[in-house]
Amino acid sequence: MNYKDLADLMFPDAKDISYYEEKYPERNLKEGAIVTRIAPSPTGFIHIGGLYQGLIAKKLANQTEGVFFIRIEDTDQKREVENGVIGIINALTDFGFEPDEGMISETEEKGKYGPYKQSIRKEIYQAYAKYLISQGKAYPCFCLPEEIEEIRAKQESAKIRPGYYGVWAKCRKLTVEEMAEKIKAGEKWIVRFKSPGREDRKIKHKDIIKGNVEFPENDQDIVIIKADGLPTYHFAHAVDDHLMRTTHVIRGDEWLSSVPLHLQLFQELGFKPPKYAHIAPIMKNEDGNKRKLSKRKDPEAAVSYYEEEGIPKEAVTEYLLNIANSTFENWRRANPDKKIQEFELQLNKMSVSGALFDMVKLLDVSKIVISKMTAEEVYENTLKWAKKHNKELANLLEKNKEYSLKVLGIERGNKKPRKDIGKWSEVEDNISYMYEELFEKDKNEYQYQVIKNKETISKILNTYISKYYNENDDKQTWFDKIKELAGEMGYAKEVKEFKENPGKYEAHVGDASTVLRVALTKRTNTPDMYEIMQILGKDTIENRFRKAISEMEK
RNA sequence: GGCCCCGUGGUCAAGCGGUUAAGACAUCGCCCUUUCACGGCGGAGACAUGGGUUCGAUUCCCGUCGGGGUCACCA
Description:
With 554 residues, the protein is an alpha/beta fold. The protein has 24 helices and 13 strands. The strands form 5 sheets. A 4-stranded mixed sheet has the order 1-2-3-4. A 3-stranded antiparallel sheet has the order 5-6-9. It has a two-stranded antiparallel ribbon with strand order 7-8. A hairpin with a 5-residue loop joins strand 3 (101-103) and strand 4 (109-110). The protein starts with a helix and ends with a helix. The structure holds one RNA strand of 75 nucleotides.
């Protein structure tokens, strides 16, 4: 009985690995092309951190004319969620991070390096496990979970390093005959990797993001094939990323400490190891402590949150890029109109430690993104959002498309567009006073500022509408008339004049304008009032003023 | 606890032995053919800490403290 016989006994049907090596040849890509992937569990849910990884992987592959693929890591059947794949693919595709290869639906896939779902690659893993066993580099382990528990308890009470290694690796010391006998006797087994490592030796590794790191070698005989016949993450990683010819493994930095093990696995399997880039997670501050954004506690961790809030995808992407490479911000300022795709992401410039998620900053990015959109784009985006989250608004927008376009076009499209919309959910509040239906229901109070006296307000409103306002005035004339109105009321026509002569005037032209604005919109903050009046029309203006006056009388 | 990673203003961050220690968001003030916003200008605000090494340390080394990760038949 030798290792080869043992391997045959354990995996009689497994193919020789040469079969797979030939089936999945080296990719024929240009020099420097990066092949990378995103490898989620099919939970149906994608975390903002996952999206972040997807963005980085996608960009890198695109930049180098490489390949970005998606592989589903479903080796843990307990985690399985029905229809868990499609949600992830949709989220990725939505954001424009569509993979070149891999799963495209719950069951279908594209690409020549599949299957891209681990559970159906079972025989591949077994072939490689068999290979390892035949080389004496892996062995069956018959320890029951309870025994492992016992060992661990002993180790803990003796305060020594826990795990299956050295003297504790019982099954490792079995002879091939003993192993074969147990198998023949029907004892349950799993497969463990026979680690060649020694804890007292160091291994140096250069991570693309983290830089040089040094670890003790791995000496744990980790399990590579579980009782259900499926591989553990570590083994699947080595086999898959080798066969799929991944050049760069981009993953969360919680994997950093597994690098010694993974390198060992590649070594013993005879594979060329990929380059690793371990990204720091996006964090959240809680009671002064940093912690990873959690899908249970933090709504903003879910990618769906941004859709619900109406934060544009481009804004989320730009914000993420900001975290990834701080040079992005400068690039964006220098190239305000370029596509995100043109920005060249540099892995080695990524931060080593986790950034705190900053919603305020995201919203600022979002405001800039939205401010650059045309009225048409804002309209379409808002409508799309409203159809799902605000039916009433959607109806209104659809019913008054031309009008809405005008409203949304106020102070837009010029060199200094307004930056007042951060998310689609804010649009309603921003424009509701432009629609009679909504204005009637508007709960805001009339909050006059400097000029508060009822009679004065009535006088300003009445005088303005009867004596001064003319729809055909151009902006300059319109404004000159407001100045005249101010003069008639005894206010300063110029703010400067007002400031230079404290006490001389009780108000200035701006204060008079505020009265008009508040009466018109119930707001002290609106875009250009000239345009608002033009769009509203004289009748509406008059009605609004009347309403404002009668409101005061109550 | 062992091992590993990290520590520049409130936040994201440049910086790589000699700098007035960039920039962005936030904040404050001023300015800007009406307010708000936008924009412009300006202010306040940081190298966790103690030791070294060095003519000189934010930059290099060690300790301390703080934060994070990891130690599964989960990924």
